[in-house]
Amino acid sequence: MLKPASTNADSTIATPPDDTDQPKAMPLANVLGNIKVKPIPLVTETAAAGFGNGLLSIEEKDVKEYYVIPKFRYCNVDFMIEVSGLSMYPHFNPGDVIACTILKDRKFLQWNKCHVIATREQGILVKRLMPSTKDGYITVVSDNKEYPAFDVPFDEITGLALVVGSVGLE
User: Fold this and answer.
1) 2 lies in some domain
2) What is the per-residue pLDDT for 30?
């Protein structure tokens, strides 16, 4: 609502309301205050590459932002990372954010589910995992049929995380 600049009947000039008493936008962490909700770090690809060392240590410089996503509250999400490339299209688009739970033991791989794989040679991969016909290997599969599946040796893998959710824009 606009207030007239003067009480003169001929005046049509209006001024915006004084909003100095209105609360300013606040970061979510400040609003939550004492609520026990763990913000999830959205990390750079460089930080995610280090999750395979067994002790995920995310440095503040590697965190792009922190998010609280209520649906992820009980999913044991360790980190989030942005998807790049088209190999998982149409399931994931470039720029989608995926939420990941670090797997500490290979016995807990879930075949045909999306995983984030940290590798020595190729860096971070987002793929579906399938058993390989070769001993000591795993087959990684893209959703985009233009990208063929390939085998990766287990000793090349430095970390695995299960994708438990995603956030995307149209």
Assistant:
1) no
2) 55
Report DSSP letters for 38-100, one per residue.
PPEEEE-HHHHGGGGGSS----GGGEEEEE--GGGTTTT--EEEE--SSTTTTTS-TT-EEEE
Which ranges of the chain have pLDDT less than 70? 1-37, 46-58
Model pTM? Answer: 0.73
> Which CATH number does the domain housing residue 85 bear?
2.10.109.10
Tell me the two tokens of residue 71. Answer: 């649906």
Q: Residue 57 to residues 5, 51, 54, 63: CA-CA distances in angstroms?
A: 58, 7, 9, 11
Quote the pLDDT of residue 89: 95
- Give the span between the Cα atoms of 2 and 27, in whole angstroms: 29
- With respect to residue 138, please indicate whether it lies within any of the assigned structural domains: yes
The residue range of the domain holding 65 is: 36-167
Does 14 reside within a domain? Answer: no
